Amino acid sequence: MVVAELHDLGDTTSTQEATKTTNAERNMSEGQSEQRGINIHFQPEQMAGVYSNFANISHSDYEFTITFARVDHEVEAEEIPGVVVTRVNVSPRFMRELIDAMEDNYSKWTTSEGIRNLPEYEGDEPGPPQEDDDE
User: Kind of pairing, strands 54-59 and 64-71?
Assistant: First the structure.
């Protein structure tokens, strides 16, 4: 079993961040200075995740259901073939936290992409070789 700590997974936004912050502020006001982390356990076969290029979201009075699928958009048939790769049921409260985390992470990604698209950006990508003018 592989263990990963959420804060070590790169530029991710946890749906628990707002709750952790609120709890941390409450603990600090009560004279406690405890910081907690979330350990997420993966089976090795789950580390790669699954690919999805389609999602369907439905809801009932009690929960939201997010169905992730992989569909073949290149097929010219009337019905597009696809296969469900996973389905997740979440509470309305967790759905709100998930939406907030996704909006935050998407905002960070678009900012990063916008910076990369600026003409003066000099990132890690190799450019053309520089010629010496000494000759």
Answer: antiparallel
CA distances from 53 to 30, 56, 70, 80 (A): 46, 11, 5, 13
User: Token digits for 93?
Assistant: 């409260």
Confidence of residue 29 (pLDDT cuts 50, 70, 90): low
**Other residues' Cβ atoms within 10 Å of the Cβ of residue 15:** 19
Question: Token pair for residue 105?
Answer: 């992470």
d(CA 44, CA 60): 34
Q: Amino acid identity of 25?
A: E
Tens of pLDDT, residue by residue over 94-111, are 999 999 999 999 999 999
